[in-house]
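[step 3/7] inverse_fold.run input=structure_tokens len=195
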């Protein structure tokens, strides 16, 4: 079994988190894709995020129609800073014998060697880079074959853009799943004073 992992804040999850992964799923031979919201990302320690409860709920709404997509709360349950290597160790015990692909954007490649315990990371998972151009160079220290650059269509959306639109009272229905949009408005997420 080959399992893809998509980690991040997902504040909120949007089309750009889902459509490119589904587009390369067959080529990468993924059996499952796990969405794992971080409790606190190491490179975003100073930024406030919406509660894990709301972020998990929005992921569940966004992936409800896809039977290979799953929301997994292990980093929220663990708390603290969410290190990928710790998550992979935990997933290895949950899915014995599975092979793991950790999905990253091409903007994450330059800092990959700054992640916690990179040598162990590359033992536990292959990294799949979603890249607009379908190519690139891994850092020299990465073992051969442990980074793959996937050619994929991109969806130019950011969670920051969505939060700003909500605060400005602008529509977001083209950027997120309709039920995620309704959820955001129902709970008044991303309005001043709400989280």
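[step 3/7] decode complete -> sequence:
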């Amino acid at each position: 079994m080959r399992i893809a992992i998509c980690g991040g804040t997902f504040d909120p999850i949007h089309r750009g988190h889902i459509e490119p992964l589904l587009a390369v799923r067959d080529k990468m031979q993924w059996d499952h894709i796990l969405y794992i919201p971080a409790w606190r990302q190491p490179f975003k320690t100073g930024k406030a995020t919406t509660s894990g409860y709301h972020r998990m709920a929005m992921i569940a709404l966004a992936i409800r129609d896809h039977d290979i997509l799953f929301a997994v709360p292990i980093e929220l349950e663990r708390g603290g800073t969410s290190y990928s290597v710790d998550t992979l160790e935990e997933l290895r015990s949950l899915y014995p014998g599975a092979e793991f692909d950790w999905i990253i954007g091409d903007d994450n490649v330059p800092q990959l060697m700054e992640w916690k315990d990179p040598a162990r990371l590359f033992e536990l998972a292959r990294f799949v880079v979603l890249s607009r151009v379908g190519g690139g160079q891994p850092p020299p220290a990465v073992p051969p074959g442990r980074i793959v650059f996937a050619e994929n269509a991109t969806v130019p959306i950011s969670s920051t853009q969505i939060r700003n639109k909500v605060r400005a009272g602008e529509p977001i229905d083209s950027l997120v799943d309709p039920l995620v949009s309704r959820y955001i408005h129902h709970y008044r997420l991303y309005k001043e004073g709400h989280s």
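[step 4/7] annotate
The radius of gyration is 16 Å.
Residues 2-155 form a domain with the Rossmann fold fold (CATH 3.40.50.620).
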